[in-house]
Amino acid sequence: MNEKQIYVIFGSKKLESSFESLKKGKFQDKQLYDSIEKAIKNLKNNPSYGIKIPKKLWPKIYMKKYNTTNLWKYDLPNGWRLVYTIKTDEIMILSVILEWFDHKEYEKRFKY
Fold this sequence. Notes:
Helices cover about 40% and strands about 25% of the residues.
């Protein structure tokens, strides 16, 4: 019996471009790029590596824009947060990165 293939993708091309542009940015941007790259590797090994966010805390934008059925948070260094969802079918597990932001923006998005 084969195990499911695990993939990590970005929720949009714009988000993927933003990620790639971090590589060419200032020192802090490059650090963030490296942190997200490490998160991607960890999610490829274990899609539920992050912390599952209870449904009552989900911002409506994720349900409207991405039709999410689950929501996860991955803590990055320096107070940054990466938010993703997991989609599965018979042959694969897909972690979809929805966005990342600093802790202040994260608190705004989740109304803490």
